[in-house]
Amino acid sequence: MDPFAALADPVRRDLVVRLAGGPARVVDLTAEHAITRPAISRHLRLLTEAGLVSAEDHGRERHYRLERAGLAPVADLLAALRETPAPPVAESAFDGLDLEVRRTGRDRRTAPSSDASSDSPSTTQEDTA
Question: What is the span of the domain harbouring residue 37?
C-alpha cells in the first residue's frame, strides 16, 4: 500500500502519531480508540504493508513501532512543496482579468452610441482592438 493512501485515514494517522512516541501493543492502542481491537489490527496491517509500521513479537504479545524511513516519500513531497516558489500573481487573478476584459469589450459593442455623428474611424478602430 502507498504511504499516502495509508495516511489518508484519520485512525491510521493517529496510530502513526501515537507510535512516534514509542512502541506499543495492540491492546494499548485499542484502549486509546473507540473502535474494536480487530479494527485496530486491520489498520496496523495496512500501515505495515505501507512500510510505516513494523511488528515485533515478544512472547505472546506483538509490539508495533513506527518505521520513520517509510515516511520518506511524504517528507519528500512536503519538502518539494515548501521549495516551490509561489507565483507572483495568483492564477485566479488572471481569470478575473480575462473576464473583465471580455465584459468590457461586450459592453462597448452593445452600448448605444450617444452621438452617431461622432463615430469616427479612429473610435471604430479602437473598439476592434
Answer: 3-73
